[in-house]
Amino acid sequence: MKKLLLALLVLAVAFLAGCKGKDKSAEKPTKVTVMIYSEYIDPAMLTDFESKTGYKLQLELYEAQEEMISKLQTVGTAQYDVIIASDVVIQQMIHLGLIGKIDMNKIPNRVNIADQFRNPSYDPTNEYTIPYLWGTTGILYRDSTIDPLHVSYSMLFDAKQTKGKFSLLEESRSMLSMALQAKGFDANSTNKDEINQAVEYILQAKKDPHFLGFDGSVGGKDKVLSKMDWAAIVFNGEAMAAIDEDPSLQFAIPEEGSFMWVDAMTLSSKAPNVDGAYQFMNYILDANIGAQLAKYINYATPNNASLEALDKEFTGNRVINPTADEIKRMVFLKDPGDAARLFDEAWTIVKTR
């Protein structure tokens, strides 16, 4: 009899433990985890998003695309719900299985996306991305005697023209593409000889005693502000933040050209909170929230409805919204496909020599 009672007791404990486990696994997620560049969202939005959705917004920060992809491959995608990534790496992330398709019906505010950001080359079927912000890459420098409309890459790559210490951008594809343009080649070239010439051009700059190293856009901006750097290659949002703090600074799109980019919201392939991910994407696409984000971060918005909420001072600012002439000199970077290996090999040479 005692053995029977003991057996029943063991079964009861096991049953209760099982129920507890099931209850725990069935708990509703309480947070949305977003992998994002540093300094890339208005902090006020964290509490606002939580008050409107009930989800706590948790940010996982990174500085460069290579760092982001490496981390996702190392720790997996199950820790993140939304990954904000640059257009140039979207196809790579799809091929690696890092992001999944988005149910666009869950994002009603998608109607606010401007036409020019629909069916982009990096996501032609509009299945994997929702645009977040867009911008440009150029040179931030401290010299009021140099007209920003007539700046050449030679101010950094030619030791005879460099007037002070400088930093280059710590992003392989971005930096190599700018070096290709500086040499007069297509930013999207996959010609091995042209890529090698771009490598040699960067190595030439590295030999200059003024060269301080490679930095993320935020780091480059901070060094120019602190006068550690005379110039740095940065994204225009960081440039605008620096100019707001020190109006004597200048930002230029070099005459040889540069590139425009779109950062997009993507759904992690193993997102633990898919509903929360969709709510975050829809929140960002709200007209007023999109305008708030653009003004705080100093980047142009792909949200057509947000443009009506932005003043002319913002929309007419050439650092944030480049002029027609500057746009003509810029391109969007394309997925290099199999040629990605050439860029990886080239960047290894740049960093190790």
CATH domain class of the largest domain? Alpha Beta
- Helix tally? 15
Count of individual domains: 2
Secondary-structure content class:
alpha/beta
The quaternary structure here is single chain
Number of E strands:
11
* Molecular shape: globular
CATH superfamily of the largest domain: Periplasmic binding protein-like II
Radius of gyration: 24 Å
Q: What is the CATH third-level topology name of the largest domain? A: D-Maltodextrin-Binding Protein, domain 2
Low-confidence stretches: 1-11, 20-25
Terminal CA distance reads 80 Å
Mean pLDDT: 93
Q: Which band does the percent of strand residues land in?
A: 15-25%
The helix fraction, in percent, is 40-55%
SSE string, helix = H, strand = E?
HEHEHEHEEHEHHEHEHEEHHHHHEH
Characterization of the model:
With 353 residues, this protein is an alpha/beta fold. The chain folds into two domains: 31-134 and 261-321, Periplasmic binding protein-like II (D-Maltodextrin-Binding Protein, domain 2, 3-Layer(aba) Sandwich); 137-260 and 326-352, D-Maltodextrin-Binding Protein, domain 2 (3-Layer(aba) Sandwich), CATH 3.40.190.10. Helices cover 42% and strands 18% of the residues. The chain has helices at 2-25, 44-53, 65-75, 90-95, 154-157, 172-182, 192-206, 217-225, 236-245, 274-284, 287-297, 304-307, 312-315, 324-328, 340-352; strands spanning 31-37, 56-62, 82-86, 99-100, 130-141, 166-169, 211-215, 231-235, 250-252, 258-268, 330-332. Residues 1-11 and 20-25 have low confidence and may be disordered.
